[in-house]
Task: inverse folding
């Protein structure tokens, strides 16, 4: 069966079944993380962000709560 034919069958399923199928697919990917390709640009971006965590904007829990309260 071609990918297009399989996709059409999947899209014909009710939303609840498609969601269940999606969860099963994600679970299968998570079970074999080493099989999932990671683009070089993802690795480079993670390395850049981890190189100096002080450069990243961080908030304390109190600051987060205060910001949420102001939005109310």
Result:
């Amino acid at each position: 069966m071609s990918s297009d034919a399989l996709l059409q069958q999947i899209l014909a399923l009710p939303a609840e079944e498609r969601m269940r199928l999606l969860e099963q697919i994600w679970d299968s990917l998570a079970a074999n993380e080493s099989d999932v390709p990671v683009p070089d640009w993802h690795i480079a971006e993670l390395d850049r962000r981890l190189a100096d965590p002080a450069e990243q904007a961080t908030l304390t829990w109190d600051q987060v709560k205060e910001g949420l309260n102001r939005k109310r």
